Amino acid sequence: MTESTTDRPAALQDRSRRSQQDILKAGYALLEEGGVDALTVATVAERAGMAVGSIYRRFGDKEGLLLAIQHAFTENLQAEITQRMSVERLRLLRDPAVAIAEAVGALTDAFQAHEALLRVFLLLGTRHEAVRTEGSRVSVEGNRHFADALRHTPVAHPDPAAALDFAFRLAYAAIAHRITQGEFLESDRPLPWNELRSHLQTAIVRYLLGTPENR
What we know:
Layout: H1 7-34, H2 41-48, H3 52-59, H4 62-84, H5 87-92, H6 96-113, H7 115-124, H8 129-149, H9 160-181, H10 193-209
Helix pairs in contact: 1-2, 2-3, 3-4, 4-6, 4-8, 6-9, 6-10, 8-9, 9-10
């Protein structure tokens, strides 16, 4: 039984999507293993089991391939953070301190889960404008989602929007610093991820809600 002409375009699209996913997975793995120097069109093609020419046809060159990998990664990361930091769920929590802690924890957990690949893009963004621009775009989106998820909380500041913006910046800066510089750059005292998460939650809850006496 032969394949119908109407089935053929759908089958080609499915194969194209699978090939795209294979390329992205190969790119993720190579960047995690060896950084940006390990990413070449040839190594991605070999890892994905594809011809080099097909990579060039899809992405143009290594630069196009790198930016496509970053875009796919940041979109997936943002979707994961949005799911972890569910606006609907946070708004159902009666205790605002719990809601804030949940939002900070969601951001920390998502970044920790993708630490190796984030390190590559965060460091590369310091010298590669297009990578920095894409990273900034998704970070700003994350900031907006954080603020929207916590807009219902009684922020103890004259300008709640500015306070929520600073709270996100504080969490993001601490986590990004940890990812790019490691645990012991500024101190020889151990601070494992679970403790960093807990301290950030406590600090941001107190910053946004004020001391217990002021609530």
